[in-house]
Design a protein that fits this description.
Elements: E1 2-7, H1 11-20, E2 28-33, H2 36-45, E3 50-54, H3 62-72, E4 77-82, H4 87-96, E5 99-102, H5 107-122, H6 128-134, H7 143-153, H8 162-171, H9 173-182
Parallel strand pairs: 1-2, 1-3, 3-4, 4-5
């Protein structure tokens, strides 16, 4: 069963996530924290596969939290939800998050992002290589994914297949993260 920790200082956001994620109960164990320090306490007491954190929180913001998570639990998938954050906070978050998602984030996108990031990470056998890859700020992009994206873009002599490209990007957390950094 996948264990996911959601962190947000706004209790109504956590309540909404709790309601949205009830459907995942057979597949996910979800827990919620209202601050970075509370999340650190939960992570030290319980094993999680992923943490999804708000970017802007008082005291310990999402970037600080994910830095601590990367240090203490490098094989945990780190996802940042962001709305309107200052550039400094975004840069710190981008350096430690596997995925950046903008608020509001549709529940199916959130679910898919967690699942695809976990699938990408778990495609690497357990051991030092997985720990090394998980500790990096972005997940790897497979060569066949890059080739498929290049084919969807075309060579400039014809219109790019944007629908196909969007599907390729949506299936690859690493490629999606790289494109978000460009944006």
């Amino acid at each position: 069963m996948t264990a996911v920790l959601f962190v947000d200082d706004e209790r109504n956001i956590l309540g909404g996530l709790r309601r949205l994620l009830r459907r995942e109960a057979p597949h996910w164990r979800v827990e919620f924290a209202a601050s970075g320090p509370e999340a650190i306490d939960l992570i030290s007491a319980t094993d999680f596969d992923a943490v999804v954190s708000d970017c802007m929180m008082p005291g310990m913001d999402g970037g600080m939290l994910l830095e601590r998570v990367r240090s203490s639990s490098p094989d945990m998938v780190r996802i940042m939800l962001t709305g309107n954050a200052p550039a400094e906070t975004m840069l710190r978050s981008e350096a430690v998050a596997h995925r950046l998602l903008s608020k509001p984030c549709p529940p199916e996108r959130l679910r898919g992002s967690v699942e695809s990031a976990l699938a990408a990470l778990h495609s690497i056998p357990e051991g030092p290589l997985r720990t090394l890859v998980a500790g990096t700020p972005t997940l790897p992009v497979r060569a066949k994914t890059i080739k498929a994206a290049a084919m969807a873009l075309g060579d400039g002599s014809m219109t790019a297949d944007v629908t196909r490209l969007a599907g390729i990007v949506d299936e690859s957390p690493g490629l999606e993260a790289k494109l978000l950094k460009l944006v």
